[in-house]
Amino acid sequence: MQDLHQPLIDRIYEWVDPSLELSLAASGAKVSLLISDDQATVNIVLTYPSGGAVESLRHFTNQLLESALPHLTLSVNVSHKIIVSDKAKQGNSLDNIKHLIAITSGKGGVGKSTTALNIALALQYEGASVGILDADIYGPSLPMMLGVSEQQRPEVKEQKFFMPIEALGLQTMSMGYLVTEKTPMVWRGPMVSGALTQIINQTLWPELDYLIIDMPPGTGDIHLTLSQQIPVSGSVVVTTPQDLALLDAKKGIEMFRKVDVPCLGVIENMSTHICSQCSHEEAIFGEGGGEAIASEYDVSLLGSIPLSFDLRKGLDHGQPIMAVLPEGSLSMQYRQIALKLAIRLQLEGQSATATIPDITITDD
Ligand code: ADP
User: Which residues have a Cβ under 8 Å from the Cβ of 327 and sit 6 or more positions away?
Assistant: First the structure.
């Protein structure tokens, strides 16, 4: 009986997620088939959140089974289970988080925060529980991008802990919630590291699949301290195609490698310009830069996001594109990047396990 249905299971493992171009087998998913009386139940457990692909996978599986087992009633269940990072446990609320992802850039202004927020929203849209920490202490822009009012302050518990503020469905924390524009702080190196460590360790995070950390720009001491003090699963470098930004991006990749934080990939932002009048796309900063450093440093290019008016438009009023138009073409690009990131984390943490299908057949 087992051999009889093996080819069916193998066919399901061969299904390729269209946005990742990766088969279920290669992503480490688990497929099981349970046949009982006149009922066939397929359970598929993905290793990444992929809300967008679930319907197409379900449809494919249904069609396959309908023709192979026409006399049975079918049921197809698709879920996901994100495997916990094997990084050391802290003994604090960071333990509630399966993966911490640091979004970095060699220099400011390349769109790091914009990218971090849209990726966080994309992972959430695909079905994950997500938080975002604005660690960009010099210029915390997250409160504005999330539409959190300047007056809003995080609730304090036991005179020591901050409760994250929920915005756009994300659990969020930012130094911007603690200081106002009227009382800016002059940060010196050790103060910055200390304040950051404190805000990270004293925030009571709920259970999260991912915490996206919007890091300060650059490759200084703060980054080293942070990556040594908190269990970061992986880093992502955001760059623009301009040469200088690329050079800085290289430093970013090297720095995280030194502290054993894997670089999950590079995102090229403002890679081309899309004209808001005629939609013509032009590579005004040159082409292929992100791809070149990705191959030089043996990391993947997770994707390229164009310079776009639509993307910028709502950002200053708490309306990032992923929240406003999640099915639009720019959002689809963020979602694709987010899924690649999720799968890279998975593959980084464990070699994609050879899939051993489980078949349970009961003949009552
Ligand atoms: P960083 O965090 O690297 O300093 P930000 O994310 O704050 O950069 O972005 C800097 C500015 O560029 C912001 O005004 C943002 O709206 C804009 N921006 C970022 N990415 C894009 C893009 N792809 N297209 C258009 N504007 C962008």
Answer: none
Do residues 133 and 71 both lie within one domain? no
98-138 pLDDT tens trace: 999 999 888 888 899 999 999 999 999 999 999 999 987 77
309-363 pLDDT, tens per residue? 888 888 888 999 999 999 999 999 999 999 999 998 888 765 333 333 333 333 4
- Ligand 1 atom with minimal separation from the 136 CA: 2
Residues 104 and 236: their CA atoms lie apart, in Å, by 6
Domain shared by 275 and 314, yes or no: yes
Please state the atom number of ligand 1 nearest to the C-alpha of residue 270: 23
Q: Could you tell me if residue 205 is inside a domain?
A: yes
Domain that holds residue 28: 2-81+351-361
Residue 89, CA atoms < 13 Å, CB-side half-sphere: 6
Q: Which pTM value belongs to this model?
A: 0.85
CATH number for 126: 3.40.50.300
Q: Which of 281, 304, 312, 322 to mutate to test the pocket of ligand 1 (most atoms within 8 A of CB)?
A: 312
- How, if at all, do strands 156-157 and 161-162 pair? antiparallel
**Cα of 125 to ligand 1 centre, how many Å?**
21
